[in-house]
Amino acid sequence: MEEYIIEMLHITKIFPGIIANDDITLQLRKGEIHALLGENGAGKSTLMSVLFGLYKAEQGEIRKNGNVVRINTPNDANSLGIGMVHQHFKLVEIFTVLQNIILGVEPSQYGFLKKQEARKKLLALSEKYGLKVDPDALIEDISVGMQQRVEILKMLYRENEILIFDEPTAVLTPQEINDLISIMKGFAAEGKSILFISHKLNEIMAVADRCTVLRKGKCIGTVNIKDTTKEELSRMMVGRDVTFRVEKEPPVLGETVLNIEQLTVPSKIHKKKNAVHDVSLEVRSGEIVCLAGIDGNGQSEFVQALTGLTGFSKGTITLCGQDITKSSIRKRSKAGMSHIPEDRHKHGLVLDYSLEKNLVLQRYWQKEFQAAGFIKRRAVRKYAEKLIRQFDVRSGEGPVTIARSMSGGNQQKAIVAREIDKEHKLLVAVQPTRGLDVGAIEYIHKQLVARRDAGTAILLVSLELDEVMDVSDRILVIYEGKIVAELDPKTTTAEELGLYMAGAKKNTEKEAV
Fold first, then answer.
1. Taking the CB of residue 4, how many other CB atoms lie within 10 A of it?
2. Are residues 380 and 250 in the same domain?
3. Structural domain range at position 453
4. Over the stretch 410-457, which tens digit does the pLDDT of each residue have?
5. Mean pLDDT of 354-371
6. Which of residues 238, 271, 295 is at a domain's end?
7. For 465-483, what is each residue's pLDDT tens digit?
8. 3-state SS of the chain: helix, strand, coil percent to 5?
């Protein structure tokens, strides 16, 4: 009989209105990288949350090395050597990077915190695994990508032997993903066992030994990676064939919708430096312009200034001929701007509101949804049900589901539905397919192309090289807060794009586009 380090046997987890895990069995071998694949809302994160002690299953048992164990809290999981990198970060925003990493396992002597010892260990881990972070930076001041690094380092710091990675590459660059894959293989070689949740089939094919596929809360099967293909995995996941290529006609360009002149944004972290330097660009009706760059090169600050989330020190922004440089977020929205934000929790949703309330956040004041200051609840419900059907947003209780209880991918689909459906001339889409399964990615890409063909100007910000190359009509590369190149996706290569993104190559003629 084969020995498993972890066995989850006949796990059933029920939430109001939905069976999230329906009699699932998952077995992890020692030194194995085991992928967990499934659509958004298939129950992957829920299953791992049961293993980590965040949820308690209604039925089933968990065994470690053949012995039944009880995991009621994350502390129980940690004591058994189980660590988890969460899809949605479990970080205290007003704490520093170092404080977050040692939280709960603070090294001390005679009641005094040994901070220098912790710092040395963190810096050593950071150096060893190429996960560079500033130990003294506040979490609220660093990018989503940097926060992801902190989550990974937090687990490494605890020296766990069973590692759960829940969508760890969602906000990493291609090079960072390759580095993480190498790190995971190194962990497995050291005898650590890894459970790896991902929607990215290329990553699963590159790193996993076996893969268990979930669909709508049920286990479809477990396969050896060497004996399967991407196409077969996608069929198991969504129950149909998926098109990986983005089909689109050449763009039909119209008038300039967005014009930005010499935008300069100060850095939040380095007070004497600028995150964005004199960036000028324009986006015309009927085109998808992609701002591509390695995370942390100013694109987050650029988008926040453009959408009104933060201020800036210099520059002008014109939308459809209207100066919106000093306009509020609502005025920008009314002027024709839609925004799919980078951080869906901080800027995309009110997590304790229902799904239907979140779907009308940008429109509740319109006549369609209110009269004499009162919300038309039936109209809101009907509209929400339409978007839920159209974008396949899965939730336990439909429109009245609390947003916080939904899976990350379905939260993302809700934001995309809201922003694409409302009337707009410019769509600012930042990582629009982050955390989505291949079927949802296929649908969102088709929606972006359809909006472009209908005359919308789209500014896409993406870290995914495949998405950048396949979806965009024009690529602007940002490096250290400056536009260093303008590229045509039809004539450039992923390798050339990567060189520009890494700063190894610059087109000085395109410093300002």
1. 18
2. no
3. 244-336+425-513
4. 899 999 999 999 999 999 999 898 777 787 888 889 899 999 999 999
5. 93
6. 238
7. 888 999 999 999 999 999 9
8. 35, 25, 40
Q: Among the three residues 395, 422, 449, which one is the final residue of a domain in this structure?
A: 422
C-alpha count within 13 angstroms, C-beta hemisphere, residue 371 = 6
Kindly state whether residues 304 and 273 are assigned to the same domain. Answer: yes
User: In the predicted model, what is the mean pLDDT of residues 159-166?
Assistant: 89
Give 346-352 contacts, CB < 8 A, sequence gap 24+: 347/309, 348/411, 348/412, 348/415, 349/403, 349/411, 349/414, 349/415, 350/403, 351/402, 351/403, 351/404, 352/402, 352/403, 352/404
Tell me the one-letter amino acid at 462: S
Q: Are residues 459 and 497 in the same domain?
A: yes
- How do residues 61-82 score in pLDDT, each as one tens digit? 999 999 999 999 998 998 899 9
pTM for this predicted structure: 0.71
Q: Is the pLDDT of residue 3 over 50?
A: yes
Q: How far apart are CA 513 and CA 282, in angstroms?
A: 8
CATH of the domain at 262: 3.40.50.300
d(CA 405, CA 105): 28
Asked if 449 and 390 sit in the same domain, the reply is no
pLDDT at residue 205, as a whole number:
92
Q: Where are the beta strands (DSSP E) in 272-346?
A: 274-284, 288-292, 314-319, 322-323, 337-340
